């Protein structure tokens, strides 16, 4: 059964057409995406906050996480200084990008939970943390960190339970020789699995099937510890290839909005920790 599912996935990878805006309409598609993002996050009203500083933010879209400048693990913060209650369950968004997704959750989800965003592009972290300070939120914090090398050191020090980890549309690094740059490598999978509390969940998603399938294969390898949520939560439904049909978070990421406007499919899996490795 596992072999059949894997074979089906890779057959689809071979014949999957590109789902991007054609060149003549790319500018129009980009404008529509920007409008859609602004509409989705309108209640945060973040844009004016940072532009009032008179700064134009220029961000590199891609960085090499294997660069020596990202090789040193980031020290954990003083949790009692960044969160009002550092004993609350923690959600970590790996590769949080602009941070709007996580800020929206921290402001609107209604759950008693802390939120931590890890991002490798320092200028984005500077802006997101500025937004957090301006909004006066004490349940969310952003850090400049290469999660591949820093996750264990940061999260193992958190005094509360790790209840949710999300990796949403990470940089695909398409070329085979660059796959080692992808954020989700075996040590990170092992660390996430180890540090999750019982009942804690992992959400992975991508609009690139090859990337989604690679992440899925890595977490499927921990089936003795992790179960896909459709087997423990009958309210979540999958298609016949095991991808979640709906977004379980209540808000879309910016990349998700862009991809869906371009006609792409979002491939999602969510896992729940059902036992510790020692059991």
UniProtKB/TrEMBL annotation:
InterPro entries assigned to the protein according to its UniProt record, in alphabetical order: SAM-dependent_MTases_sf, tRNA_(Gua-N-7)_MeTrfase_Trmb
Reactions the enzyme catalyzes: guanosine(46) in tRNA + S-adenosyl-L-methionine = N(7)-methylguanosine(46) in tRNA + S-adenosyl-L-homocysteine
Enzyme Commission number, as recorded: 2.1.1.33
Signal sequence range: 1-19
One Pfam family this sequence matches: Methyltransf_4
Catalytic EC class: transferase
GO molecular function terms attached to this record: tRNA (guanine(46)-N7)-methyltransferase activity
SUPFAM superfamilies for the chain: S-adenosyl-L-methionine-dependent methyltransferases
Highest taxon of the lineage: Eukaryota
Gene3D superfamilies: Vaccinia Virus protein VP39
Keywords annotated in UniProt: Methyltransferase, S-adenosyl-L-methionine, Signal, Transferase, tRNA processing
NCBIfam families: tRNA (guanosine(46)-N7)-methyltransferase TrmB
Name of this protein: tRNA (guanine(46)-N(7))-methyltransferase
